[in-house]
Design brief:
heterodimer; A: alpha+beta; Aldehyde Oxidoreductase, domain 3; Aldehyde Oxidoreductase, domain 4; 2 domains; 7-stranded mixed beta sheet; 5-stranded mixed beta sheet; 13 helices; about 25% strand; B: alpha+beta; DNA polymerase, domain 1; about 15% strand
Chain lengths: ~450, ~160
């Protein structure tokens, strides 16, 4: 088998369906007698829902129904790692970011659903909007999730607001104090990265259908975690997993953005409610507001180096803005911290990382899962150190690079396929780098 | 209102609303779902079709503007079930990943090669500059257009 495929150019099995336009993405499906669903979302990033007036919207000709939390009071929260996200915001409870759903509008056409959405009256009590994670961890910052706490460890610094810290992680290798004592030069900097949308070309969309004979809901939507999504939809609407079928269509890109639940639960409810096929398709704006982003990280890096250019110690603090919900946040800031030194050998390392709740759109999975943000910090540190030491930055990287037997910050001994030095050599070649390296 | 247009060589009469976009007409009324919507704002190129021998973002063209026009979509590209050389080249060069941008990408390639059968790499890049792909990094797509151009040139010579 390996001789037939490995190292050979294989034709992709579904390429022909995609170059002819025959491949079916969620919005390419067609159902007779189909209803259209739109979501009324939060009107402010942090506010208590005081009143929701759906009467005017409901009276529009062609509106089939409008679902609010009142119609389904027993819905459970959902989420990839921690179940902290509401299906619909209840009266008297809080909207925590602009993507939170207040009502599900179901109508005969998309046009009517949109018209009805704009006729829904929303009364709110505004609260302080927290967009900066450093504000969120101040003691007097209001808690974003009142009902969630106790996830933090005993190591958490007492001066931080535990209420808005979703999770904290720690890392220790060698003796970082000793490492900094041995250093001839120490460089300390703070790096900040921004929200990035994964921007798959196909927006979140799908269809659902309730089969009353089998008491089963079928959902056609693109998902990266098919079975996790199935389980999450089932628990959120109190049905057994066997009663939820998710049928994977062609996926128009995802890059982490389709790990989270998007249209699925709202579609399931609308199908159950109307017993007719239903369609929900996000616009690009809606996708940007309501679905995950790459986490912005604040990375405080302190690096010690000997005068002949060998790294002696590295400490890092990573503050991740996970936005209104956890999603993949706990894992992303954890992995990011473990990659704090990149592909470079350091004996003595200490690290802390946090995922912080804010009222921003939630951070989730995106290519690299926290490591790309870290690369910006450690590669900048390497350049600054090389410059200060007056060593060729390629040479500096090369002499600190991982080799077989190197041990990563989290204690993994690298056994094989350690190609860092070969990679640096290739980069030097391809970039026509003028400096020379001592191998 | 009723409009008449030729889509993939076939004359069609369609009842449209003033706000119907050409994209909706193709996808909803004619069932030609090969043309995709990625942004609805003419930024991504997923909805690219050829209208009167010019590339258009079909999300920015009203259906009424397409009255009396001639439209070519991805479904009209393969004649008699045989793939167009551009389609074959996209398959052979591994230029297709998620595939959502590919119909638009292929229509832009077709227009480019119809106007210039021997494009330089810079001309290919300019020709496809209206189409975003988030998967491939474009390298294999450009390779595919080069291969298609080569095949179409040699086929042209055979015809002579």
């Amino acid at each position: 088998m390996s001789k037939r495929y490995v190292g050979k150019d294989m034709l992709k099995v579904d390429a022909e369906s995609k170059v002819t336009g025959r491949a079916q993405y969620p919005s390419d499906l067609k159902f007779d007698n189909c209803l259209h669903v739109k979501i009324k979302r939060a009107t402010y990033p942090h506010a208590i829902l005081k009143d929701l007036d759906i009467n005017r919207a409901k009276n529009i000709d062609g509106v089939v129904d409008i679902i609010t939390a009142k119609d389904y009071p027993n819905l459970n929260k959902f989420g990839l790692i921690i179940k902290d996200q509401d299906v619909l915001i209840k009266m008297g409870e809080k909207m925590k970011f602009m993507g939170d759903a207040l009502a599900i509008i179901i109508a005969e056409t998309e046009e009517i659903a949109l018209k009805a959405r704009d006729k829904i009256g929303v009364e709110i009590k505004k609260l302080e909007v927290i967009t900066d994670p450093l504000r969120a961890i101040e003691k007097d910052a209001p808690p974003i999730h009142e009902d969630l706490s106790g996830l933090c460890t005993d190591y958490l610094k007492p001066n931080l607001n535990q209420k808005n810290i979703l999770v904290d992680h720690y890392l220790k290798k060698g003796d970082v104090k000793k490492g900094f004592t041995e250093a001839d030069l120490i460089v300390e900097n703070e790096y900040r990265t921004q929200h990035i949308d994964q921007l798959p070309l196909q927006n979140e969309s799908g269809y659902a259908l309730y089969d009353d004979k089998k008491d089963e809901i079928k959902i056609w939507a693109a998902s990266q975690w098919l079975h996790d999504t199935q389980a999450d939809v089932a628990q959120s609407i109190n049905m057994s997993k066997e009663k939820i079928r998710i049928i994977q269509t062609a996926i128009g890109g995802a890059f982490g953005k389709k790990e989270d639940v998007s249209v699925h639960i709202h579609l399931a409810l609308a199908a159950l409610h109307t017993q007719r096929p239903v369609k929900l398709e996000y616009t690009r704006e809606e996708s940007m507001i309501a679905q995950s982003k790459r986490h912005p990280l604040i990375i405080k890096a302190k690096t010690g180096v000997s005068s002949n250019g060998y790294l002696t110690a590295w400490s890092v603090e990573v503050i991740g803005d996970t936005g209104a919900y956890a999603s993949s946040g706990p894992a992303v800031v954890h992995k990011g911290m473990y990659h704090c030194t990149g592909p470079y050998n350091v004996e003595n390392i200490e690290g802390t990382s946090y995922a912080i709740y804010t009222n921003n759109t939630y951070g989730g999975a995106m290519r690299g899962f926290g490591t790309t943000q870290m690369a910006f910090a450690y590669e900048s540190q390497m350049d600054i150190l090389a410059h200060k030491l007056n060593i060729d930055p390629a040479q500096f990287r090369y002499q600190n690079a991982y080799i077989t037997g190197s041990v990563t910050p989290n204690g993994q001994k690298l056994g094989k396929s350690v190609n860092t030095k070969r990679t640096i050599e290739s980069v030097i070649d391809l970039a026509k780098w003028e400096g020379e390296i001592n191998k | 209102m009723k409009i008449t247009l030729t889509v993939n060589g076939e004359k069609r009469e369609v009842e449209v609303k003033p706000q119907t976009r050409l994209l909706d007409l193709l996808r909803e009324d004619l069932g030609l779902t090969g043309t995709k919507e990625g942004c609805g704002k003419g930024e991504c190129g997923a909805c690219t079709v050829i209208m009167n021998n010019k590339l258009v973002a079909s999300c920015l063209v009203l259906a009424v503007q397409a009255d009396q026009s001639e439209i070519l979509t991805i479904e009209g590209l393969n004649c008699q079930d045989e793939l167009h050389p551009i389609q074959n080249a996209f398959i052979n060069k591994g230029a297709v990943q998620c595939g959502f941008c590919i119909p638009g990408m292929i229509m832009s390639s077709k227009q480019l090669l119809d106007e210039n059968i021997n494009p330089t790499e810079a001309e290919i890049k300019r020709g496809l500059s209206g189409n975003i792909c988030r998967c491939t990094g474009y390298v294999k797509i450009i390779d595919a257009v080069k291969e298609a151009a080569h095949k179409m040139r040699s086929r042209g010579e055979d015809d002579v």
